[in-house]
Amino acid sequence: MKDGFFFFIVMCIIDLFEIIGKRGISALAASQINMLEGSLTKPLFQFAIPVALIGILQQMFNTADIMVLGRYVGTEALAAVGNNAPVIGVMVNLFLGISLGANVLIARRLGGRQLKEASGAVHTTVLMALLTGLFILVVGEILAGPLMGWMGVPEEVRASSEFYLRIYLLGMPGMTLYDFLSAIYRSHGNVRTPLLSLVTASLVNIGGNFLAVFLGFGLAGVVVATAVANYVSSGLLLRMLRYGHGVLHFYPGAIRIRLDDIREILRVGVPAGIQGMVFNLSNMVIQSAINSEGALAMAASAAAYVLEINSYPFIIAFGQAITTFTSQNFGAGNQERCREVIRRGLCLNFLFTCGLIGLVFLMARPFLEIFGLQEEAVELGLVKIHLIIGFYFLSTVYESLSASLRGFGNSLAPALAMLVSIVGVRMLWLATFYAANPTYRNIMYCYPLSWLTADVLIGGLFWREMRKQRLTLLRVK
Question: Beta-carbon neighbour count of residue 397 at 10 Å?
Answer without folding.
Answer: 20
